[in-house]
Design brief:
heterodimer, A: about 210 residues, mainly alpha, MetI-like fold, 2 strands, flat, B: about 575 residues, alpha/beta, D-Maltodextrin-Binding Protein, domain 2, 3 domains, five-stranded mixed sheet, elongated
Chain lengths: ~210, ~575
C-alpha cells in the first residue's frame, strides 16, 4: 500500500490538476477553431444553393473523421519543419490534439449554429441563444475527448494517471488511481452539465415569459 | 598339424598388420603437423601484410599521383591526408565543440591517419548522408556510429573486424518491474522512426510511440512522457554519465546486437579497405580499441572479447579478417518482399510520373508489413462490428435497467451510466484492459475484446439513457396506459432511434482508440509498419481515408436501421 500512499501524498494530485488544465486548454483551442470553421459553414448551409450543398458535404465529412486517426494523421503527415512564408507551422503535441478535435467541434458548431440562425429567422432570439449552452456542452465533451492526447505524449490528466499506475505493482492500487481520474473528470463534466442545464432552463423560462408578455 | 600350430603364424601376421597400421597413422599425424606448421610459418602476420601493401603503394609515389583513375589509397598517400566522415554530435563517440573534436571514433580516426603517416580531415556527416558521402567522393572513409547490416552491405564496403558492437537497450525508471519480453507486452515504448529494432519490439506485442530524433527520447523519459524508451546502448551511454539520469533510470532489457563498422566506397577503395581491415585487426589484437573505449568511458565487454579472439593464432594472420570464425557477419535486416512488390514500385513510379505525387506504400512491399496491414484491416472490421453489437446490446440492457421500477436494477445501472459518462474513453479502455490483464494473460485478442467491451459500455450507457428517457415520456401519454412493458420498451427503442444511431456512429469513430491498449487494428498496424519503413505521410493519409469511408458506410447502414425502427414504431 506504501506505493499508493507515496503517490497520493506526493505531488500526484497537483500534477493531475495541472494535467486537467492541459485538457481544458486543448478543448478551448479546438472549440475556438471549431467556431471559426463551423459558423461560416452554418451560414453557407442557411444560404442554400451550391454553397449550402458543399457545406453540407463538408460537414458530413468532418463528422465522419475519427479524432484519433486525425491526430495521428496530423502528427505523421505534416512535416516537422513545415513553414509557410517563413512562418513556423510545426505543431506541438497540444496543438495536434486540439486540431484533431476540430472536425468534431466544427461539425457540432455548424449544426447548432444552423439551428440558432433558423431561430433568429423565426424571430426567436432566445431560441437562438440556446446556441450558447449547446456550445458549452460541446466544450465539456471536448474536455473528455482531449484525453486522447495521452497517446501522443501530451502530459494531460490521463497521462499523469497512467504514468503513476505503471509504477504501482498492485492491481487494487491502480484501480484507486483510475477512480481518482473518473472522479476528477466526472466533477468537471457533471458541474459543467449542471450549469448548462441551469442556463438552458433560465433561457427557456425567459422565452416563456416573453411569449406571455406578447 | 594341431590347431595350436596352425594359429601361430596367423597371430604373427595379425601383429604385423596392427604395427604397420600404427606406423602409417603416426606418419600421417606427423605429416599433418608438419604441414600445419609450414602453413602457419608461410601465413604472414597482419602487420607484415599491412607493411607490404603500404611499402608497395609508397614506392609508386610520386609518379602515380599524376595518373588518372588512381585508387583511393594512392590518392590519400599522394595528398598526405585522409578525409574521414564523422558525426558532429554523438556524445562519447564523436562530438565537435568549437574547434575540438573528441570521442571514441575521433580517436580511432586519428590513430588510423597516424598509422598511415598522413593527416586527417574530418567531414561532418549525419545518419542520413554517412554512406552517400562515400559514393559522392566527399569522404574517403566514414566512422559514424554505423551499424553493419545486410542492406548497407550493398551500399558501402564495411571494414572488418568491426570496431564496436551496440545493442538496443530498453531504458526505464529503476522501479519499473521489467524482467523479460512478457513484461513489455501491451506497454508503450518510445522509439525513433526507422530504427531497425522496432520490428522486433512490435513483434513482441509492445506498442511504439514514434519520435523523429533520438535526443527527444531522453528528454521524454525525464519529463515522464515516456515510461520506456528503446535506442542504441551507445546513445544512452552518454546520459548514464549524468548522475541524476543514472539515479532515476536503468537498462531494463537489451536485444538486437549490431556490429559497427567503418566504411569506404565500394569502387576504387579495394586496397584502402584492405589496409583498414588489417589496421582494425591489429588494433583489436593490441588492445588499442579497448584502451580508446576506456578513455572515452564507453562499454568494453565486446572489445575485451575481441582482443582475446584476435590474439588467437588462427585469427592473427593476414587472412584472419576474412575468416568467418574470426569476424562477425553483418546483421541480417533484409525483409522478405511481397510477390507483388515490383508491381507496387512500378505503380508508385507511374503515379509520380503522371501526377508528381511521391507516394510510398510500404505496407504492400514487404511480407511482414503486408501481413500486419491485412490483419489490421480484418481486426478493424471485427472491432467495428463488435463495438456496434456491444453498443446495441448494452444500450438495450442499460435502457431496460434504467427504465425499471426495481431499485436493484435501476440504481446500479444509473451508477454505471454516470461512471461511464464521467470517464474519458481512453481511461475506460485502459481500465478494461487492466481488468482483462488481471483475469487472463494479455494478448492482442484480449485487447480487442477489452476494447469492444469498453466502447460498447461507453456508448451503450448513453444510448441506454436515451431509451430510458423515452420510456419516461410515455408516463405523460394517457393513450399508453395499459400497454405491456415489452411493447412499451420496443416503442421507446423506436422513439430513441436517432440517439441510438448517433452513439453507434460514435462507437465506430472510437474504434481507432483501441490501438491505445494494443488492439491490433489498422492504426496500430500502420504505426508498427511505419516504425520500420518509410512513407509515413502516404500511410496516414490512406488510414484517414479508410476510416472516413468506414464511418460513412456505418452511418449509411445506421440510417437504414433508424428508418426501420421508426417505421416499426409507426406501425405499432
Amino acid at each position: 500500500m506504501s506505493g499508493l500512499a507515496d503517490t497520493i501524498t506526493g505531488d500526484f494530485l497537483v500534477r493531475l490538476l495541472t494535467g486537467m488544465l492541459v485538457n481544458l486548454e486543448i478543448a478551448g483551442i479546438s472549440l475556438a477553431a471549431g467556431l471559426v470553421l463551423g459558423l461560416p459553414l452554418a451560414l453557407a448551409r442557411l444560404g442554400g444553393g451550391v454553397a449550402g450543398a458543399g457545406a453540407a458535404s463538408l460537414i458530413a465529412l468532418l463528422r465522419a473523421a475519427p479524432t484519433f486517426v486525425v491526430m495521428f494523421f496530423l502528427l505523421n503527415a505534416v512535416p516537422r519543419d513545415a513553414a509557410i512564408l517563413g512562418l513556423d507551422l510545426s505543431l506541438s503535441g497540444i496543438m495536434v490534439a486540439a486540431l484533431s478535435l476540430v472536425p468534431y467541434s466544427a461539425a457540432f458548431v455548424a449544426d447548432s449554429g444552423l439551428d440558432a440562425m433558423r431561430q433568429l429567422r423565426r424571430r426567436s432570439p432566445l431560441g437562438a441563444l440556446l446556441f450558447l449552452p449547446n456550445v458549452s456542452r460541446a466544450f465539456f465533451v471536448l474536455v473528455m475527448s482531449s484525453s486522447a492526447a495521452a497517446a501522443v505524449g501530451v502530459s494531460e490528466a490521463i497521462s499523469v494517471i497512467l504514468r503513476e499506475t505503471e509504477r504501482l505493482p498492485r492491481f487494487a492500487d491502480r484501480l484507486v488511481l483510475f477512480a481518482t481520474g473518473i472522479v476528477c473528470f466526472g466533477l468537471v463534466l457533471q458541474t459543467g452539465f449542471a450549469a448548462m442545464r441551469l442556463l438552458h432552463r433560465r433561457l427557456a423560462r425567459s422565452a416563456a415569459s416573453g411569449r406571455h408578455r406578447r | 598339424m594341431t590347431g595350436a600350430e596352425s594359429s601361430r603364424p596367423d597371430r604373427r601376421r595379425g601383429d604385423i598388420i596392427v604395427v604397420s597400421r600404427l606406423l602409417l597413422l603416426a606418419l600421417a599425424l606427423l605429416g599433418s603437423l608438419l604441414t600445419t606448421r609450414a602453413r602457419a610459418q608461410s601465413e604472414r602476420t597482419p602487420d607484415a601484410a599491412l607493411e607490404q601493401i603500404l611499402t608497395e603503394a609508397r614506392a609508386r609515389l610520386p609518379a602515380a599521383c599524376g595518373r588518372p583513375g588512381i585508387d583511393r589509397l594512392t590518392r590519400i598517400l599522394c595528398d598526405k591526408k585522409i578525409r574521414i566522415g564523422a558525426r558532429s554530435y554523438y556524445p562519447l563517440f564523436s562530438t565537435f565543440e568549437g574547434e575540438t573534436r573528441q570521442g571514441y571514433e575521433i580517436d580511432i580516426a586519428g590513430l588510423i591517419a597516424n598509422r598511415l603517416g598522413i593527416d586527417v580531415e574530418f567531414v561532418r556527416v549525419n545518419a542520413a548522408n554517412r554512406i552517400a558521402v562515400l559514393g559522392e567522393d566527399n569522404a574517403d572513409m566514414t566512422i559514424a556510429t554505423m551499424g553493419h547490416n545486410s542492406q548497407r552491405d550493398g551500399q558501402a564496403r564495411f571494414i572488418r573486424p568491426h570496431y564496436y558492437l551496440s545493442e538496443t537497450s530498453i531504458i526505464g525508471p529503476k522501479e519499473t518491474p521489467i524482467h523479460d519480453w512478457r513484461d513489455l507486452a501491451g506497454r508503450t515504448i518510445c522509439v525513433t522512426i526507422g530504427n531497425g529494432s522496432n520490428a522486433q519490439i512490435v513483434a513482441r506485442g509492445a506498442r511504439v510511440m514514434l519520435f523523429d530524433e533520438a535526443g527527444a527520447l531522453a528528454e521524454r523519459l525525464r519529463d515522464q512522457t515516456c515510461t520506456l524508451a528503446a535506442q542504441d546502448d551507445s546513445f544512452f551511454a552518454y546520459y548514464f554519465t549524468d548522475a541524476a539520469f543514472a539515479g532515476r533510470f536503468s537498462r531494463q532489457l537489451g536485444f538486437a546486437q549490431v556490429p559497427w563498422g567503418m566504411a569506404v566506397a565500394r569502387t576504387g577503395s579495394e586496397r584502402l579497405a584492405r589496409v583498414l581491415d588489417l589496421i582494425s585487426q591489429i588494433f583489436h589484437r593490441d588492445g588499442v580499441f579497448l584502451e580508446l573505449a576506456r578513455t572515452n568511458h564507453i562499454g568494453t565487454p565486446f572489445l575485451e572479447q575481441q582482443q582475446l579472439l584476435w590474439r588467437q593464432p588462427q585469427c592473427n594472420t593476414e587472412r584472419g579478417n576474412r575468416d568467418p570464425a574470426c569476424v562477425l557477419p553483418a546483421l541480417d535486416t533484409a525483409l522478405e518482399p511481397t510477390p507483388f512488390a515490383a508491381n507496387v514500385d512500378r505503380l508508385e513510379d507511374w503515379i509520380e510520373a503522371r501526377t508528381g505525387l511521391s507516394l510510398s506504400l510500404p505496407m504492400l512491399k514487404t511480407a511482414p508489413a503486408w501481413t500486419l496491414f491485412v490483419d489490421g484491416i480484418v481486426n478493424s472490421l471485427i472491432l467495428v462490428a463488435g463495438a456496434l453489437v456491444a453498443t446495441l446490446g448494452f444500450a438495450l440492457l442499460i435502457g431496460a435497467a434504467l427504465g425499471s421500477h426495481k431499485a436493484a436494477l435501476h440504481w446500479p445501472a444509473r451508477l454505471v451510466t454516470i461512471t461511464m459518462q464521467s470517464s474519458p474513453v481512453v481511461l475506460t479502455l485502459v481500465i478494461a484492459a487492466a481488468f482483462a490483464q488481471a483475469l487472463v494473460p494479455y494478448s492482442s485478442t484480449v485487447a480487442l475484446v477489452a476494447a469492444i467491451v469498453a466502447l460498447g459500455l461507453t456508448n451503450g450507457c448513453n444510448a441506454g439513457q436515451a431509451i430510458s428517457e423515452a420510456l419516461l415520456t410515455f408516463d405523460t401519454e394517457p393513450q399508453m396506459n395499459g400497454t405491456g412493458d415489452s411493447h412499451l420498451f420496443a416503442r421507446a427503442v423506436g422513439r430513441s432511434a436517432t440517439q441510438i444511431v448517433a452513439f453507434l456512429v460514435n462507437a465506430t469513430k472510437g474504434t481507432p482508440i483501441a490501438s491505445f491498449i494494443g488492439a491490433p487494428e489498422l492504426l496500430n498496424s500502420l504505426t508498427d509498419i511505419t516504425s520500420f519503413s518509410s512513407g509515413r505521410a502516404t500511410t496516414y493519409t490512406l488510414l484517414l481515408i479508410f476510416y472516413v469511408l468506414l464511418v460513412m458506410l456505418v452511418v449509411g447502414l445506421c440510417e437504414r436501421l433508424r428508418v426501420l425502427l421508426e417505421r416499426r414504431l409507426a406501425s405499432a
